[in-house]
Write a structure and sequence with these properties.
This protein is of the alpha/beta class. An 8-stranded mixed beta sheet has the order 1-2-3-4-5-6-7-8, with helices on both faces. Helix 7 links the parallel strand 4 and strand 5. Helix 5 crosses helix 6, helix 6 packs parallel to helix 7 and helix 7 packs across helix 9. The chain is globular and about 45 Å long. The N and C termini lie far apart (64 Å).
C-alpha cells in the first residue's frame, strides 16, 4: 500500500505493532513444518496480535485457490495435490503452541472430488490424537453444497463449524463470482441439521457497496439458517489488483450492527473495523457454550419447579 492510500485511511484504522521477534519465531516454525496460515496468506490486519498470543488460523490444502474471489489475497490457480504429511505437521504445531482452541481453514479445492473434506477430517483427527483437550474450529469452503462433505467434517469432531457468506447477494457476481449465496446458507443449515449441537458461525465484510437493508437481510437469513456466531468487519483492499474500497465504515456503525445482531437472536456477535472470522475465536465459542449451559440450567429449574 502506498503513502497516499495510507493517508486516506481514517484514524480508527490503525494496528498496534507486535512485540519484536514474535512474528519471526512463529513463521520459522510454520516454515519448518511446511504449514501455511491464513493470517499471512490473506494479509490479515490482526496477525501481529494473534501471533503474540501464540494463536493462528491454519490454512490447509495448500496456498493456491481454485477460485478467484476479487477480495481475497490468497492466489488463485492450479493447486498441488494435498500434502499427506500435513495433518501430522499441523498437530505438532498445535502441540508446540499449546493451543486450547485451534482454527483450521483452507483454500477452495474444486479440483478434489470431496472438495478437501477428507483432508479436513484427517487434520482434525491428528489434532485430537495428539492434543485431545484442544477444541477444533473449522472455517470451510462451500464444498459445492455437498452434504456428504459437510457430514465428513462434522463426523471428525469439531466444536465450531464456520462458513462465511462474505457479502450481500447483489455483490456476489462482482466479489466472489465462483460462489452462490443460497448455497453458502445451505451449508450452514446442513451443519445444524446433521449436528444440532455444533456451534455454527459466519461472517461478512462491509465497505464494498452494500446497503443497510441488504446487510439486515443477510443477518436475518443467517439466523434462519441457525447461525450462532456472527462476525462483521471492514473490507480492506489487499492490493491495487483487488476490488477497491467503496467506503470506510465508522466504528459507531459497526456498534449498531452488533447491537442489532444480538436483538435478532445471535448468541454472539463481533462487529468492528478489524474483526475477522477467526478473531478471538476461542472467546466467541466459550460465550456460546456458557449461554447454552445457562439456558439448560434454567430449563432444569423450571422443570424442578413443576
Amino acid at each position: 500500500m502506498n503513502l497516499a492510500e495510507l493517508r486516506a485511511r481514517p484514524p480508527w484504522l490503525t494496528v498496534k505493532a507486535p512485540q519484536p521477534g514474535t512474528l519471526e519465531r512463529l513463521q520459522e516454525m510454520f516454515k519448518a513444518l511446511a504449514l501455511h496460515t491464513i493470517c499471512e496468506g490473506a494479509a490479515c490486519p490482526n496477525a501481529g496480535e494473534c501471533f503474540s498470543r501464540s494463536t493462528a488460523t491454519f490454512l490447509i490444502l495448500g496456498d493456491t485457490c481454485t477460485r478467484g474471489c476479487r477480495f481475497c489475497n490468497v492466489p488463485g490457480g492450479c493447486p498441488l495435490p494435498p500434502d499427506p504429511a500435513e495433518p501430522e505437521n499441523l498437530a505438532r504445531a498445535v502441540a508446540a503452541l499449546e493451543l486450547k482452541h485451534v482454527v483450521i481453514t483452507s483454500v477452495t479445492r474444486d479440483d478434489l472430488p470431496d472438495g478437501g473434506a477428507g483432508h479436513f477430517a484427517a487434520c482434525i483427527a491428528a489434532i485430537h490424537g495428539l492434543c485431545p483437550e484442544t477444541a477444533v474450529e473449522v472455517l470451510v469452503p462451500d464444498f459445492k453444497g455437498d452434504r456428504e462433505a459437510v457430514r465428513t467434517v462434522l463426523a471428525a469432531g469439531v466444536s465450531v463449524f464456520g462458513h462465511n457468506v462474505e457479502t450481500v447477494p447483489s455483490l456476489y457476481q462482482k466479489v466472489r463470482p465462483g460462489a452462490d449465496y443460497r448455497r453458502s446458507l445451505s451449508v450452514l443449515a446442513m451443519a445444524k441439521e446433521l449436528d444440532p449441537t455444533v456451534i455454527t458461525k459466519s461472517g461478512l465484510m462491509l465497505g464494498l457497496g452494500e446497503t443497510e437493508a441488504e446487510v439486515r437481510q443477510v443477518l436475518l437469513d443467517l439466523r434462519a439458517a441457525g447461525c450462532d456466531i456472527l462476525t462483521i468487519g471492514q473490507y480492506l483492499q489487499p492490493s491495487a489488483e483487488h476490488l477497491p474500497i467503496v467506503r470506510y465504515v465508522p466504528p459507531e456503525e459497526f456498534a449498531r450492527w452488533e447491537k442489532e445482531g444480538y436483538a435478532l437472536g445471535f448468541p454472539f456477535v463481533a462487529s468492528g473495523p478489524f474483526v475477522r472470522s477467526s478473531y478471538r475465536a476461542a472467546e466467541a465459542a466459550k460465550a456460546v457454550r456458557s449461554l447454552r449451559a445457562g439456558c439448560r440450567a434454567k430449563e432444569g429449574d423450571g422443570q424442578n419447579a413443576l
